Every structure is written in C-alpha cells, then in structure tokens.
Amino acid sequence: MSELMASLAALAGFVVGALAVMVVRQNMAQRRMMTPVDDVEPGALPHGVASVLAVLPSSAVVLDKEDRVLRASSAARAFGLVRGDHLMAAELLALARQVRRDGEIRESEIEVAGHKFGQESTNFAVRVAPLGSYGQVLVLAEDQTEHRRVEAVRRDFVANVSHELKTPVGALSLLAETIQDAADDPEAVTRFAGRMQHEAARLTYLVQDLITLSRIQGAEPIPTPGPVPIDEAVHEAIDRCNTTAAAKDITLVAGGAEGLQIWGDDELLVTALRNLIDNAVAYSPEHTRVVVSARAAGAHIESVEISVSDQGIGIPESAQERIFERFFRVDAARSRATGGTGLGLAIVKHVAAAHNGAVTVWSKEGSGSTFTLRLPAFGGMAVAVPGSTTIPQEAAQ
C-alpha cells in the first residue's frame, strides 16, 4: 500500500512538473510575441521590419544611432541614396538626426543628383520616423520625378491652350470692332470680314485638333477597330489636302504597293495622314511635290510603312526630337503664318501609338523631310502598282 502511495505521489509530481514547464514555455512564447520594439538589441532590426522593407516599392533605409545603414532596399541603392553602409544624401542625414533627437516624424521633399541615364536629378518625397529606443531611424523616399514631369506637361499644356485660344478670339474681337467703325466703307467691311473668316477657321481647327488629341491620347483602345485598306486611306487624305496644295501649285503623288491593310480605325489613320500631308505642304515652296508611298515591311509583311516626303525647308537636327510635342514649333512665326495649330504631329504620334505603331522622321535642312508611319499589318499582300513605284527617300527630296 505504501509502495502504491509512493508511486501515485511520484506520478503527481511528474504531472505538476510537466504542467509547470508547459506554462513557463507558453508564457515565454507569448512574451516573445509581444516584445515591443524598444526591447530589441542595439544594432538589430525590430521583429518583422526586414520583411516589410523587402516588399516596399519605395526606397527604404534603416539607420542606427551612429548613422550607419543597417538595412537598405534595392531601390535606395539603385538611386544612389546608399553606398556601402553610408547614407549619401546630406539632407536625409540631417533629417534623420533631427528625428533621432526629438522623436518627431518629419516629411520633406529633396532633390538628388540623377543616377538614371539621361536624368539630371531625381525628386523624392521623404518621410523619416524613429524606430525603437536605440536611436534607429527609418527613412522612406518615394521617387516623384515622373509625377513632377507630368504636372509640368499639364501646366504647359493649359498655358499653351490658353494662349492659342486667346490669339484668334482676340483677333475676332478687334476685327468686329473695326467692322463696326467702318460700317460706311463696304470695301473695308469685305476685307475685314475675310480676315474674320480666316481667324474663325483657325479657331475651329484648333478646337477640332484638341478634341481629336484628347480622344486618342488617353491610351484607350480603339472602340470599333476593323481592317483598314491603306490605298483608300491615302487617297482620302490626299483628297482632303488637294485644295491647300493647289493654292501653292504643289503636286500630291501617291505611290508604292497596293492591297496593304492594317487593323484599326480608318478615320484616325486618314487624320494622321492628312496632318502629315498638310504639314508637308505648309513647309514646302511652290511648284514642288509631296509624295505619299506605302510599302510592306518584313519577310512576312509584319508591318506597313506609309511615308510622306516633301521638298521643303527641312527640320534642324536639334529640333527633330521635339517636333512631336504638343504646340512645339521650330519656327513660331512661320507656323502662325501658315495657320497651323501646333498639334498636328502630336496627333500623328498618338494615332500611331493607338495602333501599336510608331512614327519617325528623316530630315535635312534645305533638302526636305520624310515622315514614316510604321503600323502592324493585317491580311492582304503587297502588289506592285503598274507605273507607280515607291520613290526612294533620297530621290523624293
């Protein structure tokens, strides 16, 4: 009996001991889970911070109390904010030290010398916060360069539109007052009424171009795409430009291959070609010609190239990269004299992009220009047109 009692007592002691160990281990686990950031050892990252930093898209840096980098994201190193274990931006270091002193979260914007090809500087929106009680500081920097660029483009666009609209509207107002004052002079009324018609037409073209540009520049898919015969689009665009060309005795010539097609919007393609032909006519001297030619590109006709070549004044090499910008003019005085809106080539660029294509330019001052639309082909085969060939670029000039 005594042996039985002793065995039961030993078993009870074992159970109590095991339960005590389990309770202690559970408490220790809970304490580890609930350990605050302040209990982290100096020089170590708080629990979970490394995992968070690894998935952040922005540049993230953790500094210790001596301003050494404990952890930096790949973006921070790519932008040159961190080199080795040093934070390279002096402004960020100053902010980190202020935050470490008073524990206040700070936000700012800084500009750092560019580390991307062709980019002079990078703008960052910065947020700096304390991280624990061992002097660690978290620095987050978000690249705002593209956002700034878009904002600048938007401001320039609004300013340019305001200016372009103000010019014909102001002219119409002055001409109306002049006609009113010259009511007794039929000849003057006729002359100024003609000027009013010219300014009204210019205003109409500007509004139409703005509507077209706003419709296609949003990178939205073409609503009702279909097969577009290149022959028909070229002839339609030439027909729309014949009157302007005839006024300067400029001959419009269509050549190249027949039967080519693209998949897209026929009206948009005609608009792009009309703008290229109008541009060629406006900057060509009298008694010259403008050649519109199409050809298949690629061994299996992967794309279609439509070129518009003129014998005009040409474009300076320094301006060729900017001619597709909205409202950019190589010669502002000449552009206004021709009645251009400064939006034609921007529309061409966006039409090409909407069709998954591109537009390029070859030009030489005094020898003319060739603009080429390269668009993905759809069906059809290129067939040589009897008596008509694609004129080589050099010959067209």
TrEMBL record:
UniProt entry tagged with the keyword ATP-binding: yes
GO-annotated biological processes: cellular response to phosphate starvation
GO (cellular component) term, any one: plasma membrane
Residues covered by the Histidine kinase domain: 160-379
Localization per record: Cell membrane
InterPro entries in alphabetical order: BphY/WalK/GraS-like (IPR050351), HATPase_C_sf (IPR036890), HATPase_dom (IPR003594), His_kinase_dom (IPR005467), HisK_dim/P_dom (IPR003661), HisK_dim/P_sf (IPR036097), Sig_transdc_His_kin-like_C (IPR004358)
SUPFAM superfamilies (UniProt xref): ATPase domain of HSP90 chaperone/DNA topoisomerase II/histidine kinase, Homodimeric domain of signal transducing histidine kinase
Swiss-Prot/TrEMBL catalytic activity: ATP + protein L-histidine = ADP + protein N-phospho-L-histidine
Gene Ontology terms, MF aspect: ATP binding; phosphoprotein phosphatase activity; phosphorelay sensor kinase activity
Entry superkingdom: Bacteria
Principal subcellular localization: membrane
Name of the protein described by the UniProt record: Sensor-like histidine kinase SenX3
Organism expressing this protein natively: Streptosporangium canum
